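Subject: design request, 455 residues
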């Protein structure tokens, strides 16, 4: 039997067969470029837009080499959100099913004791969010995390986000337990190759390590959004945004569409979920205040079509494979234009058409100008929605639903858990530091960047 395209890249035959069974036969550009170089032992930075097969680009060489020399915890994959961690774990399990692969998912919201016991059993691959893994390193004991000291691979998925300041202290704690950079391979994959990511390529190399291999699919930055995506806007007073959202979702052309509505805050996500549900929309939500089981159930309901609308913070903007989204609504405009690109990347995938509607308030003008400059495209007015229509069809209904939702949330003490957790983490210093000293957030040139690829 002749070899497949993946075998020609160096992928093990059993893994090539698994890919064939999943009807994945032809490597994408990022896979063709990165797999051979990773198999040669090189550190790698891979940049390619969402949906281009980045997970297989790093999973294939890792699984190939693991099957030749299986031991302990072979690889650690760090990713910014729980949903992405679960999705990556599913792909590892599917790819390695015939080899009895053991994968451990370490994310917040799940039983920490159960995770500690799984880590002690030395699974082959650990897929984790930095915050929860840092908690284990700090609190779960030497026996739990000892297996991480010999990992052969470290992967940072959505590396641009992981290297932002918000993950700084947790990443430092994770790196503190791992082998030195010359004793492991480090793979960074991202849809947005930021200056922080590019800078890692120039870091001095320890020992006799080869230069970092970097492959950026040409279209990543030149074509920020697909040609099949229509970018539209409505300009509204900020205090009636909810009523405009209701009118948009009720439009004849969107009435049956699967839609993701992005917001900037968990409070907004929860208010909209409850308010829209009162107006008989089939709606689910995804935000960090939800227990993990609810987050997972919401995503499954949306993927299965049981919910037509998903209200989400940016935990859903990156990497999640939801192929049927036809409409993205930016209820809140993100501060970073790249976040806009990630959000609207949930629709118009694989050549399909999709619409992205931004609800612009009076304070959003500068952000919209930055976004239009980044995507090299002017948004067009959504003419189907106007003030008269909103006043007639939506304003009173939505105002009442929103008021009732907020009263319910106030009674239930929504947001108290987040305040408690924030207080706890503030009391949780890095190892070897004085808990009475307030620690500064790492700067953009912090230790974490130096630790990733260079020793």
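Subject: RE: design request

Done. Sequence follows.
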């Amino acid at each position: 039997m002749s070899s497949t395209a993946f075998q020609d890249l160096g992928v093990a035959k059993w893994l090539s067969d698994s890919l064939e069974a999943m009807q994945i036969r032809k490597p994408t550009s990022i896979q063709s470029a990165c797999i051979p170089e990773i198999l040669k032992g090189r550190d790698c930075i891979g940049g390619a837009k969402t949906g281009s097969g980045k997970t297989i680009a790093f999973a294939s060489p890792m699984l190939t080499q693991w099957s030749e020399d299986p031991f302990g915890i072979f690889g650690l994959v760090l990713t910014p959100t729980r949903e992405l961690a679960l999705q990556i774990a599913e792909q590892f399990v599917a790819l390695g099913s015939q080899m009895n692969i053991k994968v451990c998912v370490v994310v917040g919201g799940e039983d920490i004791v159960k995770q500690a016991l799984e880590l002690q059993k030395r699974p082959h691959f650990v897929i984790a969010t930095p915050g929860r893994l840092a908690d284990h390193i700090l609190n779960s004991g030497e026996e739990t995390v000892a297996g991480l000291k010999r990992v052969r691979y470290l992967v940072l998925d959505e590396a641009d986000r992981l290297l932002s300041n918000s993950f700084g202290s947790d990443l430092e704690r994770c790196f503190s337990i791992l082998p030195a950079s010359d004793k492991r391979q480090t793979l960074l994959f991202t849809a947005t190759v930021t200056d922080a990511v590019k800078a890692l390529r120039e870091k001095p190399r320890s020992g006799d390590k080869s230069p970092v291999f970097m492959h950026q699919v040409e279209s990543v930055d030149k074509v920020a959004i697909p040609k099949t995506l229509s970018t539209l806007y409505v300009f509204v007073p900020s205090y009636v945004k909810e009523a405009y959202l209701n009118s948009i979702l009720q439009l004849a052309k969107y009435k049956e569409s699967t839609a993701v509505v992005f917001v900037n805050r968990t409070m907004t996500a929860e208010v909209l979920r409850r308010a829209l549900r009162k107006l008989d929309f089939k709606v689910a939500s995804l935000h960090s205040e939800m227990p993990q089981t609810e987050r997972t159930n919401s995503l499954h309901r949306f993927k299965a079509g049981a919910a037509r609308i998903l209200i989400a913070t940016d935990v859903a903007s990156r990497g999640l494979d939801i192929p049927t989204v036809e409409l993205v609504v930016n209820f809140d405009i993100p501060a970073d234009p790249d976040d806009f690109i990630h959000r609207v990347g949930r629709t118009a995938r694989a050549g399909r058409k999709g619409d992205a509607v931004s609800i612009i308030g009076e304070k959003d003008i500068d952000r919209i100008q930055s976004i239009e400059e980044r995507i090299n495209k002017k948004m067009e007015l959504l003419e189907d929605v106007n003030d008269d229509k909103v006043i007639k069809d939506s304003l009173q209904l939505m105002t009442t639903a929103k008021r009732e939702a907020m009263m319910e949330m106030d009674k239930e003490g929504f947001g108290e858990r987040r305040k408690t957790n924030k207080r706890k983490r503030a009391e949780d210093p890095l190892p070897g530091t004085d808990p009475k000293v307030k620690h500064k957030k790492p700067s953009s040139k912090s230790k974490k960047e130096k630790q990733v690829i260079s020793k």
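The chain has two domains: 5-221+448-452, 229-412.
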